Amino acid sequence: MNVHLASSSTLEKVPAALRSWLATPRPMLINGKWVQARSGKVFEVQDPATEMHLATVAEGDAADIDDAVRAARNALENGPWGRMSPSARGRLVHRIGDLILEHLDELAQLESLDNGKPFSVARVADVPLSADMFHYMSGWSTKLEGKHIPISGLAAPGQYLSFTRLEPVGVVGQIIPWNFPLLMAAWKLAPALATGCTVVLKVAEETPLSALRLGELLMEAGLPDGVVNIVPGFGETAGAALAAHPGVDKIAFTGSTEVGRLIVQAASRDLRKVSLELGGKSPNIILDDADIDAAIAGATAGIFFNHGQCCNAGSRLYVQEKIFDKVVSGIAANAGNIKLGVGMDPATEMGPLVSQVQYGRVTGYLKAGQEEGARALTGGTRHGERGFFVKPTVLVDTKPDMKVVREEIFGPVLVATPFKDADDGLIAAANDSIYGLAAGVWTRDIAKANQIANRLKAGTVWVNCYHVFDSALPFGGYKQSGWGREMGQAVLSNYLEAKAITSRIA
Ligand code: ADP
Question: How many domains would you assign to the chain?
Answer without folding.
Answer: 2
